[in-house]
Design a protein that fits this description.
The complex is a heterodimer of chains A (about 140) and B (about 140). Chain A has about 140 residues and is mostly helical. Chain A has a single domain, classed as Globin-like (Orthogonal Bundle). In chain A, helix 2 packs across helix 3 and helix 2 crosses helix 6. The two termini of chain A are about 20 Å apart. The relative contact order of chain A is 0.19. By secondary structure, chain B is mainly α. Chain B has a single domain, classed as Globin-like (Orthogonal Bundle), CATH 1.10.490. Classes of the chains: A mainly alpha (about 140), B mainly alpha (about 140). Chains A and B meet through helix 7 of A and helix 7 of B. Chain B: Keywords: Heme, Iron, Metal-binding, Oxygen transport, Transport.
Chain lengths: ~140, ~140
């Protein structure tokens, strides 16, 4: 699955709008994830997952930074996230199904904050983009 | 996900061994799939899906041939299955989840007929190969 020029433009444009709130969106996405899909908490036994937790905010930032990197290098997501890909493959080993869940939560958070920008086309572009990111992060698993 | 040299060797090895029975295995795969995952029948309202149906046999042969093609061109599955990829994207539009079900059934059929061949390593290679085929066939969906 490749992103068309229009899709890349849509991703980059929305990211530019989100950039200042990226950390908050990250934390919110994780909160949604742990709330709607409690099984995802299994990967964070060492975290305080209550609302507003510093660890949640910190981790949300990490996630959004990585997404920002992928946006910046949207023509070579694989290269940009190579180290993260290895981290997920050899150490974290997050079950691939969870990337869909997190992507869904990120999309919900973005939609909630930018309702008029989140047209069906933009939604599709972001969904493809997050799918690409997920693919890269799980491709070295085996 | 990239097929290693060992994966390719394993896959080619399996297909060499099963080449004489590919058609039969294709039909059996479909039968198992329709049996175990009845929702997959939704794509074949025009078929007689009873045991021994000539249509299922013919279709099983088509599926098997495609897998053999992919195995024979394992270094360029996307090229080998390009037309099939277009067909799935523009006409068939089989929900991607069903490729996993078909792949699983194919593995079961191989396991039943060649228990000693399907070691854990070969199983993993074959599973990766089937995932790669599924990825190619759904790559042009959007």
């Amino acid at each position: 699955m490749t992103l068309t020029q229009a899709e890349k433009a849509a991703v980059v444009t929305i990211w530019a709008k989100m950039a200042t709130q990226a950390d908050a969106i990250g934390a919110e996405s994780l909160e949604r994830l742990f709330s709607s899909y409690p099984q995802t908490k299994t990967y964070f036994p060492h975290f305080d997952l209550s609302q507003g937790s510093g660890q949640l905010r910190g981790h949300g930032s990490k996630v959004m930074n990585a997404i920002g990197e992928a946006v910046k290098h949207i023509d070579d997501i694989r290269g940009a996230l190579a180290k993260l890909s290895e981290l997920h493959a050899y150490i974290l080993r997050v079950d691939p199904v969870n990337f869909k869940l997190l992507s869904h939560c990120i999309l919900c958070s973005v939609a909630a904050r930018y309702p008029s920008d989140f047209t069906p086309e933009v939604h599709a572009a972001w969904d493809k983009f997050l799918s690409s990111v997920s693919s890269v992060l799980t491709e070295k698993y085996r | 996900m990239v097929l290693s040299a060992t994966d390719k060797t394993n896959v080619k090895g399996i297909f060499t061994k099963i080449s004489g029975h590919a058609d039969q295995y294709g039909a059996e795969t479909l039968e198992r799939m329709f049996c175990t995952y009845p929702q997959t029948k939704t794509y074949f309202p025009h078929f007689d899906l009873h045991h021994g149906s000539a249509q299922v046999k013919a279709h099983g042969k088509k599926v098997a041939c495609a897998l053999v093609e992919a195995a024979n061109h394992i270094d360029d599955i996307a090229g080998a299955l390009s037309k099939l990829s277009d067909l799935h994207a523009q006409k068939l539009r089989v929900d991607p989840v069903n490729f996993k079900l078909l792949g699983h059934c194919f593995l079961v059929v191989v396991a039943i007929h060649h228990p000693t061949l399907l070691t854990p390593e070969v199983h993993a290679s074959l599973d990766k190969f089937l995932c790669a085929v599924a990825t190619v066939l759904t790559a042009k969906y959007r």
